[in-house]
Amino acid sequence: MALAIRDTHSRYGLVSRALHWAMALLFLWQFSGATARVFLEDTALESFLWGTHRTVGVMLMALILLRIVWALINASRRPPSVSVMAKLGHLALYGLMVAVPTIALIRQYGSGRALDVFGVNLMPGFEGERIDWMVDLGGSLHGELGWAMLALIVGHIVMAVMHRRLTNHNVLKRMA
C-alpha cells in the first residue's frame, strides 16, 4: 500500500509523519543538550550539544508552524482523537511547542544580542540597555515550560503504548 501524502481518517499521511518524526529527533537532541547542561556541565558533550540549542530551537519553531498549517489544511481528514484527554494532551503539546521557542525569541530580542542561524541573521542585536521584562520572562519560563513539555512528550509516548495494550487502539500505527 502506497503511503498517501495527505492525512486520511485512518492514518496520518507522509507529510504529517515526516514532520512528527523529524521533530521527535530534534526534540531528542534539544533535551539531550538541556540534560547535559544540567548534569554534565563544562564537558565536551555539553559544549557540543548546548552549542546547537538556539539553531535547533529555531528549526523546531519553523517545523511546528509548518505542522500547524499542515494540520489545519488536513483537519477534516485526520484520524479522530480516541478520547477527550488525548485531544487535550495534543493541544497542550502544540501550545508548549509554540510557547517555549516564542518565549526564547522574546528573551533573545530583549537581551540585545543578534540571532544568527546557519549564517543568516534572523534577529539583529541592538545597542543600549537590555529589555529586562523580556529577559526575565525567558529566564523564568523558557526552561520550566521546556521541562513541562518533556513530561508531556513522555506521557504522549506512554499513552500511545498504553492505548495499544489496554484498549486495542493501535494509535501508534497511525503515525508509525
Task: Itemize the secondary structure elements and their pairings.
Blueprint: H1 14-39, H2 44-50, H3 53-73, H4 84-111, E1 115-117, E2 120-123, H5 132-167, H6 171-175
Antiparallel strand pairs: 1-2
Task: Please describe what this structure looks like.
With 176 residues, this protein is mostly helical. The protein is 70% helix and 4% strand. The protein has a two-stranded antiparallel ribbon with strand order 1-2. Strand 1 (115-117) and strand 2 form a beta hairpin. Helix 1 packs across helix 2, helix 3 (53-73) packs across helix 4 and helix 4 packs antiparallel against helix 5 (132-167). It is globular and about 55 Å long. The model has no long low-confidence stretch (mean pLDDT 93).
Record keyword descriptors for this entry.
176 residues; mainly alpha; two-stranded antiparallel sheet; 6 helices; globular
Short structural summary:
A hairpin with a 2-residue loop joins strand 1 and strand 2 (120-123). The mean pLDDT is 93.
**What series of H and E elements makes up the topology?**
HHHHEEHH
**Strand numbers in spatial order across the main sheet:** 1-2
Number of helices: 6
**N- and C-termini, Cα separation:** 14 Å
Helix/strand/pairing category: mainly alpha
The whole-number mean of residue pLDDT values reads: 93
CA-based gyration radius: 18 Å
Shape: globular
Low-confidence stretches: none
**What share of residues are in beta strands?**
under 5%
Query: What's the helical proportion of residues?
Result: 55-70%
The largest sheet is:
2 strands, antiparallel
| Number of E-type strands | 2
